[in-house]
Amino acid sequence: MDADRVKEAARTIAGTLNGTMTAAMIHLGDRMGFYRALADGSPRSSRQLADELSLDERWVREWLHQQAAAGILQHEGGSFCLEEETALLLSDENHPAFLGGMFGHLPQQIAVVEKLPEAFRTGLGLPYDAFGPEGAVGVERGFAPWLRTLLVPMALPRLPGVVEALAGGVEVADVGCGGGVALLEMAKAFPNSRFHGFEISLHALERAAQNRREAGVENVTFHDARRNPLPDDGRYAFVTTFDCLHDMTDPAGVIETIRAAIRDDGLWFIAEVKAHPTLQENVERNPMAAMMYGVSVLSCMSSSLSEPGGAGLGTLGLDATRLEAMVKRAGFSSLEEVDLRHPVNAFYAVRP
Ligand SMILES: C[S@@+](CC[C@H](N)C(=O)[O-])C[C@H]1O[C@@H](n2cnc3c(N)ncnc32)[C@H](O)[C@@H]1O
Question: Which of 25, 74, 227, 351 yields a CA-CA distance of 20 to 30 A from 263?
Fold first, then answer.
């Protein structure tokens, strides 16, 4: 046995625990308001931060030490500060680069580990509702910054004819709409159009209803897709699916229904995780591949196996080649990649 290889493997394995603990501390930092309090860049002692947030100093101090050790906070003497660049990622919920939301449902995501040994035996996974109401909030917060800031001003203008159609007034469907952030953004910008969200997660539908009330928009309706599926009568000029086809138990069936639901001159806009056809390519080309496969076991693949016979695509299971084959099989004529930069997603325009 090679002793150096043992040391190297030990470093790799122990390093993952470093990441796990730091992720849990980021979750707490987001939840306790530490990053928002530190976002002004002023150095603070643990006493100052604790007093500001009415918290216990000893607990705050240990959290600050962890964040300094992890390289997230800068520290000098007994003072800690958040650099502007890091504050953007962890405290500014309305910036497209905000990452804090990704840690929002970490407790719920990790908690399902308790149920997964059974899934490994039976093959049957868990739907998104297994994460509970907080899980739906967490999923929503992960995707919302991009949808809120860039979907309407940057992405839609890249899709030929879509802004004009939406401004004129058409029917729009978002399938797998989650908490409805994408639809609500579009509905606010295009009051002449009518927007319909289809979703199977009851917790996500509750969030969507709450988000609609808070936004005060009238031209959006959310549907429980199990009871009111997407109508297959060619009424929609614009259909969207954001990060959800790979989560579905029957993506091929849903793609066929979208083909039947969309007008012949309509357009389907897809956001899907950037994936490659092989494990080797995913590992070589995606530095986050280990995290992605983990998320797949905890949520995406699990969801796509949550019914008997589920497709089980998972987080990295829907690369462009496979997606193109699937949409063409369902009768769409073309799939083109849309030139939008995103750390995780690729974007496609699909035409009947
Ligand atoms: C990762 S979330 C994305 C949610 C949303 N599009 C967003 O960007 O926030 C995937 C969603 O797809 C939903 N989903 C899975 N299968 C579905 C189906 N057959 N029809 C509608 N929604 C589905 C899940 O319940 C989950 O809310």
Answer: 227
For the CA atoms of 17, 22, 25, 26, the dihedral, rounded to the nearest 10 degrees, stands at: -140
273 lines ligand 1 (CB under 6 A): no
Q: Give whole-number Cα distances, 285 to 9, 273, 276, 345, in Å.
A: 22, 13, 8, 14
Task: Report the pLDDT value the prediction gives residue 208, as an integer from 0 to 100.
Answer: 98
Indicate if 80 and 135 belong to the same structural domain. no
Q: Is residue 99 assigned to a domain?
A: no
What does pLDDT average to in each consecutive run of 10 residues of the chain (352 residues)?
A: 95 93 98 97 98 98 98 97 96 93 94 97 98 95 94 98 98 98 98 98 98 97 97 97 98 98 98 97 96 97 98 98 98 97 95 98
Q: Within 10 Å of residue 222's Cβ, how many Cβ atoms?
A: 24
Q: Are residues 69 and 207 in the same domain?
A: no
**242 CA to middle of ligand 1, Å?**
8
The answer as to whether 202 is a domain residue is yes
Range of the domain at 39: 3-92
Q: What is the pTM of this model?
A: 0.95
The rounded distance, in Å, linking the Cα atoms of 50 and 44 is 10
Q: From the CA atom positions of the chain, what is the Rg in Å?
A: 22
Is 65 inside a domain boundary?
A: yes
- Does residue 75 sit in the same domain as residue 140? no
Q: Is the CB of 211 under 6 A from ligand 1?
A: no
Residue (of 320, 137, 150) closest to 245 by Cα position: 320
Count of domains observed in the chain: 2
Q: Supply the pLDDT for residue 82.
A: 98
CATH number at residue 86: 1.10.10.10
Whether 38 is in a domain gets the answer yes
